[in-house]
Amino acid sequence: MTPHDISFFFIAAKPAGGRHMGLRQARSERLLAEGLSRESLLLLRSWPMPTWTSPSQGFSLKDHAAFNQQLAQLLTRGVPLVEALDVTEQTVSLKAKGVVSQIREMVSSGASLSEACERTGVFDVVTVAVYRAAERTGDLGGASSQLYTTARRQLAVLGKAATLMIYPAIVFVISILVSLSLIVFLVPRIGETMEEAGAKMPWFTVMMISIGRWLQTNGLWVLLGVAMVAMLVVIFRTRVYAAIMLFVRRLPLMSDLLLAQESTRFFSVMAAMTRSGVPIADALGVANEAIGFPPLRKQLMSMRQSLIDGGLLRQLIETVTVLPLGTRRLLIAAERSGDMESAFDSLAEDMSEEVDRRASRLLAVLEPLLIVMLVVMVGSVIMAIMIPMLTMASAVE
Question: pTM above 0.85?
Answer without folding.
Answer: no
